[in-house]
């Protein structure tokens, strides 16, 4: 019987409008009434994760930035796992050499040196997912969606990262040229001793400290609660969810998930646009998985 549920957000808990459907809300509340704790495990930072949760009236602990920053139910920071700053500078060199757009996520929010470049790269990401859109339509959709992903513009990410009071928790990279360019850079960075490279889309890679992974963070939260991993349920759709899918006793891949994730998960649920999370929760409880 499950005692703890950890769910991804984008492509999983959230629908196409970046909201939590009523069916998902009802299932989460049902689980909580049964004494099952619900936790978010997302690549988003806390400022990006909170709005849809607040709109839905859901209060829960949050594993953010792929496990680099964890918060309790009241929103208090529990721990961070930042990227080593020496490796970070080498990482910037590699990304710059490959001409890849990147921004950094810190405990103070996300930062970029160009909001225009951010919109252009995100628009390519949208076009890849929705190829029927014109470039203009993709730009308009991107501008609207980026309201959910606030970012601060600074003259230099290197200078910001060098500040003693700033912890860089994740580097988010986008390149509309796709895996050919991202893969080459990601492969070099993956060789760093303390880094891990994951992805949440075809035109994106995400870089964290090797101990900042969803699976490690979920394991930590479960241990703190005194819950064995066999009683933990995880739900996701992309490669940055893989580690938590692998550690949980009950794991669900979304219907819209990558095939690699479906192969690793024990169960399959519906797509995010059809309340797949809610359906998985109800199934897990009623069938006592």
TrEMBL record:
Gene Ontology molecular function, alphabetical: magnesium ion binding; phosphatase activity
UniProt keyword annotation of Hydrolase present: yes
SUPFAM superfamilies: HAD-like
Alphabetical keyword list: Hydrolase
GO annotation, cellular component aspect: cytosol
Protein name stated in the entry: HAD superfamily hydrolase
Source organism of this protein record: Enterococcus aquimarinus
Organism ancestry: Bacteria, Bacillati, Bacillota, Bacilli, Lactobacillales
């Amino acid at each position: 019987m499950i005692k703890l549920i950890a769910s991804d957000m984008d492509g999983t808990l959230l629908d196409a409008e970046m909201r939590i459907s009523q069916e998902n809300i009802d299932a989460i509340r049902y689980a909580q009434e049964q004494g099952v704790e619900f936790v978010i495990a997302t690549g988003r930072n806390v400022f990006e994760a909170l709005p849809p949760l607040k709109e839905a009236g859901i209060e829960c602990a949050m594993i953010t930035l792929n496990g680099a920053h964890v918060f309790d139910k009241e929103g208090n920071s529990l721990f961070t796992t930042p990227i080593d700053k020496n490796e970070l500078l080498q990482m910037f060199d590699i990304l710059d050499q490959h001409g890849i757009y990147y921004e950094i996520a810190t405990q103070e929010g996300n930062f970029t040196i160009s909001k225009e470049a951010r919109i252009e790269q995100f628009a390519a990401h949208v076009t890849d997912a929705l190829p029927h859109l014109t470039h203009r339509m993709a730009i308009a959709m991107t501008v609207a969606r980026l309201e959910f992903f606030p970012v601060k513009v600074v003259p230099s990410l290197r200078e910001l990262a060098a500040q003693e009071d700033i912890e860089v928790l994740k580097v988010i990279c986008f390149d509309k040229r796709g895996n050919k360019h991202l893969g080459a850079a990601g492969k070099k960075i993956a060789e760093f001793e303390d880094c891990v490279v994951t992805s949440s889309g075809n035109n994106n890679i995400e870089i964290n400290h090797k101990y900042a992974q969803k699976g490690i963070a979920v394991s930590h939260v479960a241990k703190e609660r005194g819950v064995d991993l066999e009683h933990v349920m995880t739900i996701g759709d992309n490669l940055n969810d893989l580690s938590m899918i692998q550690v949980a006793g009950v794991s669900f891949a979304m219907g819209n998930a990558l095939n690699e994730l479906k192969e690793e998960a024990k169960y399959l649920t519906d797509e995010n646009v059809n309340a797949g999370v809610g359906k998985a929760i109800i199934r897990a409880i009623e069938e006592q998985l």
